[in-house]
Amino acid sequence: MRSHHDAIIVGAGFGGMGAAIQLRRLGYDDLVILERESDLGGTWHVNRYPGLAVDIPSATYSYSFEPNPYWSRLYAPGAELKKYAEHVADTYDLRRHMRFGTVVEGARWDEEAQLWRVSLAGGETVSAVYLLTATGFLSQPKMPDIPGIETFAGKVIHTTAWDDSYDLAGKRAAIIGTGATAVQLIPELAKEVADLTVYQRTPIWVTAKPDFDVPKAVQTLFARLPLTQKVARFGGSSILEVLMVAGVLKYKEFRPFGKVAEAVAKAHLRRQVKDPETRAKLTPDYTFGCKRPTFSNTFYPTFNKPHVHLETTSIASIDETGIVTSDGNRTDLDVLVLATGFNLWDVNFPAIEIIGRDGKNLGKWWRDTRFQAYEGITMPGFPNLFSLNSPYSYSGLSYFTTIESQMKHMDRLVTEMQKKGATVFEVTQEANDRFLDRMTRNLEDSVFRLGSCASANSYYFNQHGEATLLRPTSTLGAFREAGRFPLTDYTYA
Ligand code: NAP
């Protein structure tokens, strides 16, 4: 195994693979993709819980340059995404670059040698001219710090570590959390277990999911006439763009749009849940869009079943046999499912320690100042670093729009370096500040500033109370800028 490369990519999910494809197009073949898991696919390798599926139409939730005509449903099941990731790795010959079971601990810019030194668990060090971090947003599972949880004697399963060998049949189960993951999992769990208690802290906005099997004839049409699938993709992407811009980013101008979305979700709930008290508990009290809404036809009806209970009293503690709520009630359990999501802002920005020029620590800088990244991808003081999961990088509902914008940004920047014969880039402080000011101004019109978000507990907000996860521009705008940003926003050496 050689220890120096053109580029090191951390993460073998769709972001990391997109970056590798782009670097290969730019003429770099000496790449290594370091992945802590045992296989590729990122989120779609790790998550295997029952009910897992995309909730963005699959023609849109995929690379535009590698369409898959054979998605079985409008919203493909998770296993098909994992298969698609494998197909991409094979088609673009990426597997030979990947090293699995490799945990990256940190990276440090070596000013003298003008390269990144990356340290791996076990003591090995590798180096590269470019460092690309593609470690995902939702990749550090959050374990709830409920008193006594470690004493529970039954089975504990976090949704990111699903245990297929555990038989749920006939068990007394509880699930903590009602985010997008729980919304998919709860109906499936209810089919298996004898008794299910759902512990909800914050309700989620849920609308209907217009899902269906894609007929074989349509799959054949997509395969024979790819333009037809492009049209389907365009349709899906356009709807998402409108939802995002009108419902979230331009809330000031489109306030009634948010009200309509809330009315639609409430009508969905009324149609599907019989008991008014349960309906009231399932109704959010924060503005639609503050927190990621979700789509399901099966979540709400699950609460009509006699063996499913919705518990909204807060959890006081967990002991050897079950959960005790703050009113003193106890529920005895065999299995406890944690659908408690991910820790973004404490441990995942960045996911590894990154030290740039003059000892500048990326995580510390973000926390001491503000979370920021020029065009959501580069930072002053961090030469030759593409940080693909940065503040303001996620530009819309389909993560693939973000990946492809970033590929385009890399293309423009690295092509310019090649023209100049340069080997080191760094974004200027001025360009970074200008971008941050613009994103801050754009957020003024968003639901995050003008909606009622205080009770949403939304991971879109960081510990400073700023909504710095989503890029507050349209995805079209982000894509356009990736191909047009001023080249003078960078220095080249
Ligand atoms: P999440 O949205 O962060 O939800 C976590 C849930 O656990 C929340 O209901 C939270 O309550 C609750 N929780 C956390 N700690 C708790 C504690 N100590 N006590 C009680 N409740 C606690 O996580 P997620 O459901 O895994 O979804 C994360 C994201 O993954 C989604 O927003 C979405 O972007 C993505 N996702 C996508 C799909 C898809 O179909 N494409 C499917 C699943 C997930 P609070 O809200 O009160 O904190």
From TrEMBL:
Keyword match Oxidoreductase: yes
GO terms of molecular function: oxidoreductase activity
Record-linked Pfam families: Pyr_redox_3
Keyword terms, alphabetized: Oxidoreductase
Domain of life of the native organism: Bacteria
The EC number(s) this enzyme carries: 1.14.13.-
Class of this enzyme: oxidoreductase
Protein name: NAD(P)/FAD-dependent oxidoreductase
